């Protein structure tokens, strides 16, 4: 039964299973749409139901293949806009290109800003996302952005497996993640430490030094995302050398490729805790937690004109 007659959940091909779980939470049926490709690779979209005047939420993480998923989202937005939807919200659990958020060298783009511009130009009126790689990306949009955190979901699991007292050290695998690590350590009532790293290539990382004490204690490595697991596994090896007992890792987005799965299997990490923000968050040693309820509740509140603020709390 549709409790919200004007609420429509659509999905691209990136992660339809997550869209279905969100629809189930909301008690609505996912709006039927054809999203396919012509023989030459061009995307074709057709909305098969009347959405005129509707409040439309399009679920599409822009994970690999990133360019395809972004383009598909833009085409879906255009189709929905031309079908006379009242409001279009892009639900992007994982926002691709977020690491390209500034110029670190000459003559390079700021692709995160470009993607924000493309979404707005296509007709997106609101964005709902989870754990942006850089929080300031919210400011790249001139439309409302609801930035949710996976921390409450991850913390619940962490406590359930017995990590949450002064015997646990929460560790940031690089200096950029200090703020996130500190919020986790505060929530768990534990100390925190930092690993200094040096990236030698896009897939290779060296962990150099440790700031903090981990000898004889369990460790929880915290990061927003992992793709090749280079940063996490390099940090884990250093922590093991420094006397860490059990090593766990938690990330919001596990965009795991074959290299990552192999590295995790061979690493001292006992368990990688992640969310289902992307479909490739699975494999040996991987525990995947659902965020459909979190996204579904945010959608329910946005649709009903209620405050989403309480969902931002860690």
Q: Give the overall form.
A: globular
Spans where pLDDT lies below 50 across 5 or more residues: none
Distance between the termini: 33 Å
Order the strands across the largest sheet as they lie in space.
Answer: 10-9-8-11-12-13-14
Main sheet, how many strands, which sense, barrel?
Answer: 7 strands, mixed
Number of strands: 14
H-E string: EHEEEHEHEEHEHEEEHEHEEH
Radius of gyration, in angstroms, nearest whole number: 20 Å
How would you state the average pLDDT, rounded?
92
SS field, number of helical segments: 8
Strand content: 25-35%
Helix content: 25-40%
Structural class from helices and strands?
Answer: alpha/beta
What's a concise summary of this model?
The protein has 314 residues and is α/β, with parallel strands linked by helices. It is built from eight helices and 14 strands.
């Amino acid at each position: 039964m549709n409790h919200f007659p004007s609420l429509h959940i659509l999905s691209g091909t990136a992660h339809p299973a997550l869209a279905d779980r969100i629809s189930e939470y909301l008690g609505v049926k996912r709006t039927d749409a054809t999203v396919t490709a012509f023989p030459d690779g061009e995307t074709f979209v057709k909305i098969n139901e009347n959405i005129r005047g509707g409040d439309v939420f399009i679920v599409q993480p822009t994970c690999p293949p990133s360019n395809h998923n972004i383009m598909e989202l833009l085409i879906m937005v255009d189709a929905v806009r031309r079908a006379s939807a009242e409001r279009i919200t892009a639900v992007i659990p994982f926002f691709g290109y977020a690491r390209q958020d500034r110029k670190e060298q000459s003559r390079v783009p700021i692709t995160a800003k470009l993607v924000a511009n493309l979404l707005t130009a296509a007709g997106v009126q609101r964005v709902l996302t989870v754990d942006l790689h850089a929080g300031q990306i919210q400011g790249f949009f001139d439309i409302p952005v609801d930035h949710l955190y996976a921390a409450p979901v991850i913390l619940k699991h962490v406590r359930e497996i017995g990590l949450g007292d002064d015997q646990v050290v929460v560790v940031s695998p690089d200096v950029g993640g200090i703020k996130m690590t500190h919020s986790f350590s505060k929530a768990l009532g534990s100390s925190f430490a930092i690993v200094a790293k040096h990236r030698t290539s896009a897939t290779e990382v060296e962990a150099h030094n440790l700031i903090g004490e981990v000898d004889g204690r369990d460790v929880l490595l915290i990061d927003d995302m992992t793709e090749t697991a280079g940063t996490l596994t390099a940090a884990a090896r250093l922590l093991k050398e420094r006397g860490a007992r059990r090593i766990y890792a938690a990330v919001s987005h596990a965009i795991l490729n074959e290299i990552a799965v192999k590295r995790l299997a061979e690493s001292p990490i006992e368990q990688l805790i992640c969310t289902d923000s992307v479909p490739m968050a699975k494999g040996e040693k991987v525990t995947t937690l659902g965020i459909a309820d979190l996204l579904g509740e945010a959608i329910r509140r946005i649709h009903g004109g209620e405050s989403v603020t309480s969902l931002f709390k860690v």
